[in-house]
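Researcher: I need the complex structure. Ligand is adenosine monophosphate. Inputs:
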Amino acid sequence: MGSGGREHALVRALGGSGWTVFAAPGNPGMAADADVRPIAMNDHAALVALATDEGIDLVVVGPEAPLVAGLADDLRAAGAAVLGPSKAAAQLEGSKAFAKEVMLAAGVPTGRSETVTNVDEGMRAVAEFGLPVAVKADGLAAGKGVVIAQSEAEAREALQSMLDQGVFGDAGRTVVVEEGLTGPEVSLLAISDGTAVARFPAARDYKPIGEGNTGPNTGGMGSVSPVPDIPDHLADMLVDEVHRPVIAEMARRGIPFSGVLYAGIMMTPGGPKVLEFNVRFGDPETQALLPRVGGDLGEILLAAASGGLADQPVPMTPQASVAVVLAAANYPGDPRTGDVITGIDQAQATGAEVFQAGTALNAAGDLVTNGGRVLAVQALGDTVEDAREAAYAAAALIHFDGQQMRRDIAAGMAS
Ligand code: AMP
Ligand code: GLY
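Model: Output:
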C-alpha cells in the first residue's frame, strides 16, 4: 500500500520472487508489475476490503501516515497478515517525544533533549544546549519538521512558527529541542516480528537538494548501500545498541513493534546517536536496498508479519547499489507538474531499474511529472563506484523539462 518509489521497489522485489502483487493506490509505473487499485490511503474500509476480497496473504504498508492512523490495526482486525506496526507502536515515528522517552527507558544513545510546549521553555532548552540546536516538531511533518538553528534568533523563529503559528498544525504543538550533533549519518533498517530482528546492511540517503549537501532538505535525492564506513560488524553492534533494546522496551510496554524499524543514526565523535526512528521502509533507501536482497523478500516479510522471523540479517548479494532521484522543476518547493518523461525503457535496457514516484498519465496517454521526486534510477555493481556509474549512465537516458538530479550521490566512497 502506497504510491511512491519505495512502494514501486517493494512491488518489483516481491513480483521478482514470484508473488502476485496488488498495489493500492499505486502509480503508473506499477501497472507493469502489479494489479493497481486506486484506493486512497485514508480509506481504511476499502483497503481492508481489498485485502479480504482478494485473499491477500501479506499486506505491506509503505508510508508512515496510515500506520500512525491505525491502518495496520484495521487490517489485522479483519484477519490480514500485515507488515507494519500498530497505531500504538507507530508512535515511535508519530511522536518524537515518545521516541525520546522510549530511548531513555531503553538506554539507547541519543542526543540530549527537552520536550517543550511553549517558546519560553524552548528558549531555556536552547540556552542549556547551546548552538547549533535542533528544533523538531513532535508529530509527522512530511520530512519538514526539523530546523537546525545556527543562532538564537533562528531557534526562536522555529519555535514560534511551530508552537505559536501552528505551521505544522497539531504535529508542532509539542516540540523536541535537541543538542546539535555532527558526524556522518547512516540509515539502519531492521525487520522485526516483535521479538526477532533481521537487519539490512547500512544505507545512506542524501537529503539536501544541492550537491555537497547544500540547500533545503528534500525527501531524499539518492541513496547507496552498502556504506563502506559502516561495515556489517558495525551494523550488528548498532542493532544491538539501538534496535534490540527498543524492540524489547516496546514489548515490555505491551505494544510490541512488528514491521520495519528504521533508525537514523549520526556517528558523532562521542559515539553513535539516534536522530530519529521511522516505522517503515525508508525512501529512497529502499530503492537501493531491495535490489540487493538475496532471497525471497516476501517470505521474510511474511515471517515478520506472522511471527517466527529468523533472528539473522536479511540475506543480501555482495553487490553495491546506488539509486539516483530525478526530481521535478522547483522541488522541494511546489513542484511543477505535467512535464513529459521519456527514456525510461532505454534506461531499463541498460539493466538499471527505474522506480516511479511522482508520475501520472496525461489525457494523451503520455507519462508526465506529477510530484517532487519523479523517478529513482537504481543500478547494481561490484563496487559502489561501478553501481554509481551504471546508475548515472542510465539516468542520462531519461529526459523531462526542469529535471533536477544531484551528480554526487555515492561519490567519493571507498569500497
Ligand atoms: P530527523 O527527521 O530527526 O532525522 O532530522 C532530519 C535531519 O536533520 C537529519 O537527517 C539530520 O541531518 C538533521 N538533524 C536531526 N537532528 C539533528 C541534531 N540533533 N543535530 C544536527 N543535525 C540534526
Ligand atoms: N529517507 C528518509 C526517510 O525515508 O524518511
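Model: Summary of the prediction. The radius of gyration is 20 Å.
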